[in-house]
Amino acid sequence: MNPRTRLLLHGPILPTLLRLAWPSTLVMLAQASVGLIETWWVAHLGSDALAGMALVFPGFMMMQMLSNGALGGGISSAIARALGAGHQDQADALVLHALVINGLLGLAASALFLTKGEAIYRMLGGDGAALELAMRYSDVVFAFSILVWLGSALASVLRGGGNMLLPAVAIIAGVVLLIPLSPVLIFGWGPVPALGVAGAGWAVVAGSGLTALVLAWAVLSGRSLARFRLAPLRWPLFADILKVGLVASLSTLQTTLTVAMTTALVARAGGADAVAGYGTGSRLEYLLVPLVFGLGAPLVAMVGTNVGAGQRARALRIALTGGALAFVVTESLGLAAAFFPEAWLGLFGSDPRMLAAGTTYLQHVGPAYGFFGLGLSLYFASQGAGKLFWPLAAGMLRLAIAVLGGWAAFAITGSLDWVFVALAAGLVVYGALVAGSIASGVWFKEEKNRGH
């Protein structure tokens, strides 16, 4: 047995989880820094350029979440389960199937935004110079979106075998290239002409290309437990990835819908000042996602490998250990934000009305962040087990409580405070339901019933 697989199957749970988590956490922080770096440089081009890039950001971020977290989770889960079961040939064949799936989806993303991008950005409120600059940036980054999808597939192949370090190295290499390249291409330097906002797009493409190249080298040179080999394409192997990846994609879309609808609710309840405060406060909630992904990526590999090996009790202990760790970390951040809200809000502005609305949000919702971290970490663990029904159902319930409950609370009380109470209640129910269902053994009840 490969030493890495042996570690996933027999190593001490908490030390192994922490050992695997730090590279993934570093990766997510590096990826988050890309957006901050680009935004800082593009801001020097004026408000129209900044607005144009903001129009493109949601679609590009959604593509990264789908390729890395959703379909990527499906790839890691399928490979981990195959390796855990000792099916090396199947794990090797899954590499090609993963590249085919993500390659086709990368081409589809390019086709969508190259042909319908302007219409999409108009729907988001873009017009005039901002829309024109959005198209310059969008046409570059989405023309080469296949690099993002293929890089995510290769990173997920490595993670499925328990290798978290090489994907971290590859992604950080792309970020290191982007840091000096972005200002050079935006503003020009020596013989390099100034490309403006399009230059920011080309810097992203170069960083994505370098990341994909390093990951391809890692997989093709045998540093992955699942090796790339030409093999006949088989529907069961596609299905093994998609049964997790497509359901996980629904969860990603669900999260986006929750944010959009709660923003509309807050706007109705409190107006533009409330939206500014809610948006500023909830940025902290967004930062919890990459933080929890640092634990989530190893949870997919550890749970999947143990499920594949038939070690169900250990898989469950791994999931609950990861969930408890995520709860402690995210609850600590949430309580700190609730007690000291201006320490966070003051980073983004000093308008008293924004600070007031943001403080109200953090004081009500911050203490519930631990349940968000708990549910999200167990969502990743469920990817490893190939069982996503309960996280998806809990996410739907969270959406209903946050939006419908929030509307009802505002209609009855007319108070924004009770809208935020509904948002907090949605998070508590989400985390508690996912944790309770998994702890009760729902992952394996179907197999037990078939056995009887």
Structural write-up:
GO terms for molecular function: antiporter activity; xenobiotic transmembrane transporter activity. This is MATE family efflux transporter. With 452 residues, the protein is an all-alpha fold. It has 2 domains: 3-233, no CATH class; 235-452, no CATH class. Helices cover 86% and strands 0% of the residues. The protein contains 16 helices and no strands. The radius of gyration is 22 Å and the shape is globular. It starts with a helix and ends with a helix.
What's the topology here?
Layout: H1 3-10, H2 13-42, H3 47-84, H4 88-123, H5 128-143, H6 145-160, H7 165-187, H8 197-220, H9 235-308, H10 312-339, H11 341-345, H12 352-365, H13 369-385, H14 389-413, H15 416-439, H16 442-451
Helix pairs in contact: 2-7, 2-9, 3-4, 3-5, 3-6, 3-9, 3-13, 4-5, 4-6, 5-8, 6-8, 7-8, 9-10, 9-12, 9-13, 9-14, 10-12, 10-13, 12-15, 13-15, 14-15
Overall tally of structural domains: 2
Class by SSE composition: mainly alpha
Task: Give average pLDDT, whole number.
Answer: 87
Largest sheet: none
What spatial form do the alpha-carbon principal axes imply? globular
Please provide the count of β strands: 0
Query: Could you list the spans in which at least 5 consecutive residues all have pLDDT below 50?
Result: none
Our count of helices gives: 16
As an assembly, this protein is single chain
* Radius of gyration, CA atoms, in whole angstroms: 22 Å
Query: Percent range for helical residues?
Result: over 70%
Distance between the termini: 32 Å
Keywords: Cell membrane, Membrane, Transmembrane, Transmembrane helix, Transport
Protein name: MATE family efflux transporter
Main location: membrane
GO molecular function: antiporter activity; xenobiotic transmembrane transporter activity
